[in-house]
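Page 42, continued from yesterday. The earlier attempt failed because a stray header line got pasted into the input along with the sequence. Redoing it now with the clean sequence only.
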Amino acid sequence: MKKTIIIICALLFASMLYYFIKKSTEQSDAATQVNPVFMSDKGGGTLTDKKQAFDRSKKSAEQGDAAAQCSLGFMYYKGEGTLTNKKQAFYWSKKSAEQGYADAQRNLGLMYEYGDGTLTDKKQAFYWFKKSAEQGLARAQVNLGFMYEYGEGTLTDKKQAFYWYKKSAEQGDATAQYDLGFMYYKGEGTSKDKKQAAFWIRKSYDNGYAKAKETWDNLELWKY
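This time it went through. Structure tokens are written below.
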């Protein structure tokens, strides 16, 4: 009798365990669904992988997950796992950006800057670059520096351009390091300082920014 009770209990436990595992698998947990996207949309992978990544990303995005919305926008933009659709890329990037997701904010800024999936709007580009840059995203800080330097979507402000290039350069962004070096060289937004110019342009060159090597040689920055 005791043995029979133990067997029944074991069967009930196994049945309950199966039920909860099945329910857990079926539940639409957005964070769980989006994880494979970041493994699949960074290059490589088969067409099947990318389609699965797209499907998972879309499911999570529709539930409001900001990371998934950003990823879905990227996949629509690049045609990863789906047909290229710039309007959908814009739509999902905006949904994510409005939730405060820094990568999506930068992507949205780029789409406004170049009129991808929407009308060109430099003021909106500036607005979203600034939102992203203030969260510390180095690439957005470069974009914001550029907007300030050339008066795109805002008034020209070389000091602000210098400030944002420096923020990005200190995070190791090669483009920002070059731009910062050039501002030191010209004395724009800061005092002219050729030693600092040489330092940052060399950093950029070492980090693989091709234009920095040409500038290094042409301006003979090795002297400093």
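Notes: The chain is about 70% helix and 0% strand.
Reminder to self: strip header lines before submitting.
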